[in-house]
Amino acid sequence: MSAPDEIREVVVLPPEIEAARAKVRRRRSIALALGLALFALTFYVLTIVKMGPALFDRAL
User: Rounded to an integer, what distance in angstroms lies between the CA atom of residue 9 and that of residue 57?
Assistant: First the structure.
């Protein structure tokens, strides 16, 4: 790849905007983590339900 013909300037945003973006990013990360945990828990519960009560009657 060749180098770009022009170098773009770096835009520095005010701290208030950076703080707001960080807050939104954190909320989104928490929401994704909760969604993933709920998804995993759903599969775990469905697997146990699908195995049925015979799962607990087997000899160890």
Answer: 69
Q: What is the pLDDT of residues 38-47, one digit of tens each?
A: 999 999 999 8
Q: In Å, what is the CA distance from 4 to each residue of 7, 8, 9, 12?
A: 7, 9, 13, 21
Of 16, 38, 18, 14, which is closest to residue 26 (Cα–Cα)? 18
> Which residue reads 């087997």 in tokens?
58
Segments in the chain forming alpha helices (H): 15-51
Interatomic CA distance for residues 47 and 6, integer angstroms: 56
